[in-house]
Amino acid sequence: MSDPDRFLKTGIFLAPFHPVRENPLLALERDMELLVHLDRLNYHEAWIGEHHSAGFEIIACPEMFIAAAAERTRHIRLGTGVVSLPYHNPFTLAGRMMQLDYMTRGRAMFGVGPGALVYDAVKIGIKAEEQRNRLEESLDVVVALMQGRMVTRKTDWFDLRQARLQLKSYSQPMMEMAVASARSPTGALMAGKHGIGMLSIGGTSDDALKAHASNWGVYEEAARANGKTPDRRNWRIVTFAHVAETTEQARQDVKFGLEDYKRYFSEVATFPIIPPEVTGDPAEYLVSSGLACIGTPEACIRHFERLWQGSNGGFGGVLLLAHNWADWSATKKSYELMARYVHPHFQRSSNELREWSYSDAAGKYATAGAQSKAAVQAAIDRYQARKG
C-alpha cells in the first residue's frame, strides 16, 4: 500500500470504560449517543467489547448493543470488538451474528478474541492456558458456519453434529470478520489462516509497533500457507487520542477522567497501560511513550503518521480506544476536530480535487481577476453611455 493510495478508515474501539461511581444507565446512553455523533461525523466503524466482570467495562452483550445502535445510526459500521469465543457455543454464537448481519443489512462486523479480562474466564471455569486453544477450535467452526457449511466436530467443550445455520450470509461473500491480536502471534496466526481481518491492540509504543509489524508478517505467512491473499486494508491498529484547539486545553481536558482510568489499569486490569511506578503526570507518560496523542489536531496527524511508518508498509484503519478521559462536551469536540482536520490528511482522495481546483484558481488569479474586473468596468461604462 503506497502513500499516494493511502486511505485510512477511522473508528473507535469501545470497551467501554466507565468509573464505578457513575450511573450505569446514563453511561450506556452516552455510549450510544457517541455512536450517533460519530455517524454524523463520517467515522467509518465502531467496535464494541464484551466484558462481564470488574464493574468498569459494562457492555456484556455487544450484539445487543449493536442491534440498538443500528436503529439510531445510518452509515457507520458496527463490530463486536470483540466477542470472546471461548465463552460461547460456536453454533449459537454464529447464528446470533448471522441474524445481526441481516438486521443491520450488512453493517455489522464480527470481531473475535480469546478473552482479555481474566476475571470473566475465572468465573466460568476456564483456565487461562485453555483460552487460545479454544479460540482456534471455535474460530475454525465459526468461519465454516458463516460460509454456509455443515460442521460435525467434537471437542472437550462443544459437540456439533451436522450443525448448519438457517440463513445464508446477507453480506457477500461473507460477513466481515477480524481477530484481535496483541503481543503474542496467536491472533495473527488465526486471522491469516482464515484470510480475515486483524485488530492490533496492546498499545503503540515503539516496542508495541514493532510487535504489531512482526505479527502482520506472521499474518502474511499464515495467509499464504492457507491459500489466502493478505491485504493490509484488513489490518486495523488501536491507539489513544484526545485533541483540542491547544495542547494546554487538551491536557486540561483529560484531568477529568485520566486518574480513574489509571487506577483501573493499575489495580484491576492485568495489563497496566500506565505502570504503577509512574508517579508523575500520566498524560505526559502516555504522550512521551507513544501510547497516545493528547494535543492539537496537528499533533494527532504526527501521531498517526508515526503509526503508519511503524507498520512497515501501511495498514487499513486506525481505531481510537474510547477512554472517557475528558468530560462529555470535550470528548465530542475531540472527535469532531479529528474528523474535520485529521482524517482528511489520511484520506487523500477526499480533498485531492478540491486542492487542485483551489491551486488552479490561485494560479490564474492575476490574469483572470484582471479580466473579470475589466469586464465589470466595461459593463458599467456601457450602462453609463446608454444612460447619457
Taking the alpha carbons of the first and last residues, their distance comes to 68 Å
> What is the total tally of β strands?
11
In the CATH hierarchy, the third-tier topology is known as TIM Barrel
Q: What ranges have pLDDT less than 50 throughout 5 or more consecutive residues?
A: none
CATH superfamily: Luciferase-like domain
Q: Residue-averaged pLDDT, rounded?
A: 95
Q: Give the SSE string.
A: EHEHEHEHHEEEHEHEHHHEHEHHH
The biggest beta sheet, please? 8 strands, parallel, barrel
What is the domain tally?
Answer: 1
Binned strand content = 15-25%
The appropriate CATH architecture is Alpha-Beta Barrel
Quaternary structure: single chain
Structural class from helices and strands? Answer: alpha/beta
**What Rg is obtained from the alpha carbons, in whole angstroms?**
25 Å
Number of helices: 14
- CATH C-level: Alpha Beta
Helix content: 40-55%
Shape descriptor: globular
The strand line-up of the biggest sheet is 1-2-3-4-7-8-9-11
Describe, in short, the structure shown.
With about 400 residues, this protein is α/β, with parallel strands linked by helices.
